[in-house]
Design goal:
Number of helices: 8
Strand order of the largest sheet: 1-7-6-4-5
CATH class of the largest domain: Alpha Beta
CATH superfamily of the largest domain: Glutaredoxin
Largest sheet: 5 strands, mixed
CATH topology of the largest domain: Glutaredoxin
Radius of gyration: 18 Å
Shape: globular
CATH architecture of the largest domain: 3-Layer(aba) Sandwich
Strand content: 5-15%
Structural class: alpha+beta
Number of domains: 2
Number of strands: 7
Oligomer: single chain
Distance between the termini: 40 Å
Helix content: 25-40%
Amino acid sequence: MRKLFLFLAVIFIVSFLIKRKDMTWRQSVLKAAYPLIMLKGKIWPGSKDIQENRNQSLPPVSFYSLMAVSNQGDTVDFARFKGKKVLIVNTASDCGFTAQYEELEKLYRQYQDKLVILAFPANDFKEQEKKDDAAIAQFCKVNYGVSFPIMQKSRVVKGAGQHAVFQWLSDPSANGWCSQQPMWNFSKYFIDERGILTHFYSQNISPLSKQVIAAIQ
C-alpha cells in the first residue's frame, strides 16, 4: 500500500512539473489539478450547485427571442435552436475549471445531434480571461479541440453591461424561476427543446456528470 501511495505521489508531482505545449505554467498546473478540484462536486455538492425548475415554469420572455454574436463576428439567432437542447456555459482560460472545455467537447461530440453548447468567455471572476477573442479561439482549439460555438467575450454577472443572454438566465421575470447568476467560471444553464430553462449547474458539477447526462437523455 505504501509503495502504491508513493508511486501515485510521484506521478502526481511529475504531472505538475510538465508544462504542456501552448499553455502557461499556471494553465498546465491547473489542468493537472483538475481531478482534485472536482472532488467536492462529486462527493458533496452544495444545495446551490444543482438548481432545478421543478414546477416546469414557462419563461415569460421566449428563449428564442435572444441573440448573441459569435467569436467570429456572426450574429447567432437563438430561434435556430428550436427543437434542440442547449447548454450555455460562461468560460475562462486561466481557471481551475478550464479543463471542463475538454469534457464539454466530449459531451458535444456524443450528443451533437440533439444538443447545442454555447460558450461565453468572460473576465468577471479574478480576471481569469484576459485574452481577446482571437486568442481565446486559438487556445480552445489547440488545447482542447473545441468545435462547439464560442461567443464573443462578454460580461455575464449582474450589473451594467451584463450580456442579454445572461440577463435572461438570471432573471425570474424573464426565464420563469431562476435568479442565479454565474457563481464562477463554468457555471452551466440547461434549456430543453421547448425553450424552457430546466437546470442550473455550478462549476463544481462536471459536464459529464450523471445529472447533466440525465437532463440530455
